[in-house]
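Researcher: Quick test of sequence recovery. Tokens follow.
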């Protein structure tokens, strides 16, 4: 690649008006300009785009930028042309262009005016486009949102798998792959699929110290809680994510009824409404956007102050990316997720409709999210560990588990029985199944496996099931261990979310302790709200009654259950040693 725009610093100043690079930007740009493949892992807001935009401006030929969303593409092209003060410097080529507009784009590329050509993978696979691109000098390929290549990523797009063969057809040039979220296994998958195993890898820290993470238990008061939370952040911008379009509409309506300026956003709305709602949010005419995950990619609003997940997200990776839209200016960003095991069951049902290989992956991603939600370990530690980044601090000081450590509950033989049941069934069954066994429920499934004949069956008949479920999930093998036992797929990094306190376990002959699964936290002070009357308001929950302070739940397990012979201290000592070695013990 022949740089013709002078050195990188003067190019940065000339094209973008910046005095200095951020983080790894300069090293990345120099490596790419040197002709080497580059893999860039940089959290949202880190200045990813500049890593290919600047080299494109400095290189001979046109850079092919492969990007997944047409709407996103237009924004980036507009921004680029504005920066450079040149309407031909960047173009996009996709199905939304008229024939004459597409011809103009091609003419600008051929004349050398265009330095960046954005294409969607679908457009890249078209024969006429391949033929055209073969006829022009290409400086390099940039694959944006590269995690879409991996089926282990949260946003897998099969057409991304065809990028490498097409690059070979057009002509091999350096490749820069960029993403804001990639676990080690996603990264491995991306590099392998793009044929860039030897690429220079640049990873930035995933730790967003300004973001506060919290998980709240979802119950019938959740709508009220949400209203109170948003009211306590009056005048600030926020996003509320829901899993379904229907839920988006309901929550947006519920918030509006409660005098919150909220608008819906999902793929089921027509394009004009979507874009009007998005603009209203960007231009502060609405405080809250209630959306499916369709909203957010490429949205550059630096002062989003909170991101709420009304439903549990399908993967931790997606969760990280979505929460990453808060506090991009470095200011406050509160990330609240509502969690209910029932939501997980609903998602599991949806997963059953998918093709079998996809089922396994989706279930796995969900298990990891559930571990996050139920864990008493620092949220930041879990998230960073998920992305392969160690976090050694004892207390991050900015998550619910660190600021308000959970109450512990005592449990003795139940813990032994849970371990016993998990092991006796070959560590292959879901937590709900194990719970059914422990409480002595003869389901068809249990009978078909003849597990009602096991000694451990029915040994916890009078234990709170929710606590039991949390306990079982804690003693089950870590997700990666389940995965490696059922699949030959290579797993690179194992997230670990078991949250049993080591000290209690080591001398747990009589009493084990377990973090209370859903301990109610001390309510923070919130502004008073006054009732309003309206029949419609009354119909769609309007929440203005004085807040009821939730009673702190305390689970106390029976201390001397009738035990089977296997639930003995000796058996416990044996089984404890068999707990997953990579368990995170707080
Ligand atoms: Zn923490």
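Model:
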């Amino acid at each position: 690649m022949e740089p013709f725009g002078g050195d990188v610093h003067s190019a940065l100043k000339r094209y973008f008006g910046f005095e200095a690079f951020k983080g790894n930007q300069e090293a990345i740009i120099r490596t790419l300009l040197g002709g080497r493949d580059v893999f860039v892992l940089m959290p949202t807001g880190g200045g990813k785009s500049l890593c290919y935009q600047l080299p494109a401006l400095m290189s001979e030929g046109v850079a092919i930028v492969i990007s997944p969303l047409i709407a996103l593409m237009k924004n980036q092209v507009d921004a680029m042309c504005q920066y450079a003060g040149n309407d031909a410097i960047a173009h996009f080529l996709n199905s939304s262009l008229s024939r004459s507009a597409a011809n103009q784009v091609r003419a600008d590329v051929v004349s050398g005016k265009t330095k960046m050509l954005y294409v969607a993978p679908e457009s890249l696979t078209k024969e006429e486009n391949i033929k055209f691109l073969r006829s022009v000098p290409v400086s390099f390929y940039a694959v944006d949102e590269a995690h879409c290549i991996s089926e282990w990523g949260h946003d897998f797009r099969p057409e991304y798998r065809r990028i490498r063969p097409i690059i070979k057809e057009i002509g091999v040039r350096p490749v820069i792959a960029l993403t804001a979220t990639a676990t080690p296994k996603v990264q491995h998958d991306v590099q392998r699929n793009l044929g860039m195993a030897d690429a220079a890898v640049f990873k930035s820290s995933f730790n967003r110290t300004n973001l506060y993470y919290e998980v709240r238990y979802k119950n019938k008061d959740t709508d009220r809680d949400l209203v109170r939370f948003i009211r306590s952040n009056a005048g600030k911008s926020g996003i509320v994510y829901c899993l379904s379009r229907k839920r988006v509409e309901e929550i947006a309506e519920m918030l509006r009824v409660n005098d919150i300026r909220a608008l819906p956003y999902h793929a089921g709305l027509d394009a004009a409404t979507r874009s009007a709602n998005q603009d209203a949010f960007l231009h502060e005419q609405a405080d809250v956007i209630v959306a499916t995950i369709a909203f957010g990619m490429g949205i550059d609003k630096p002062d989003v102050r909170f991101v709420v997940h009304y439903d549990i997200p399908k993967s931790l990776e997606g969760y990280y990316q979505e929460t990453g839209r808060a506090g991009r200016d470095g200011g406050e960003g509160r990330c609240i997720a509502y969690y209910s095991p029932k939501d997980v069951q609903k998602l599991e049902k949806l997963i059953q409709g998918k093709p079998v290989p996809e089922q396994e992956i989706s279930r796995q991603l969900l298990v990891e999210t559930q571990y996050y939600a139920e864990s008493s370990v620092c949220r930041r530690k879990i998230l960073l560990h998920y992305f392969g980044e160690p976090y050694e601090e004892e207390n991050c000081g900015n998550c619910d588990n660190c600021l308000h450590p959970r109450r512990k509950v005592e449990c003795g033989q139940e813990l032994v029985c849970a371990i016993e049941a998990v092991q006796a069934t070959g560590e292959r069954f879901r937590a709900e199944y194990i719970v059914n066994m422990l409480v002595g429920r003869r389901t068809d499934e249990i009978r078909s496996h003849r597990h009602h004949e096991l000694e451990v069956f029915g040994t916890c008949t009078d234990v709170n099931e929710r606590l039991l479920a949390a306990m079982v999930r804690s003693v089950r093998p870590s997700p990666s261990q389940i995965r490696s036992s059922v699949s030959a797929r290579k797993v690179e990094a194992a997230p670990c979310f078991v949250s049993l306190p080591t000290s209690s376990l080591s001398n747990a002959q009589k009493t084990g302790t377990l973090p209370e699964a859903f301990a109610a936290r001390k309510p923070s002070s919130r502004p008073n709200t006054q009732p309003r009357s309206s029949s419609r308001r009354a119909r769609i929950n309007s929440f203005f009654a004085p807040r009821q302070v939730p009673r702190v739940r305390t689970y106390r397990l029976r201390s001397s259950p009738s035990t089977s012979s296997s639930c003995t201290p000796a058996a416990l000592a044996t089984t404890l040693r068999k707990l997953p070695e990579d368990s995170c013990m707080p």
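The pocket of zinc ion is lined by residues 378-380, 396, 399, 401-402 (CB under 6 Å).
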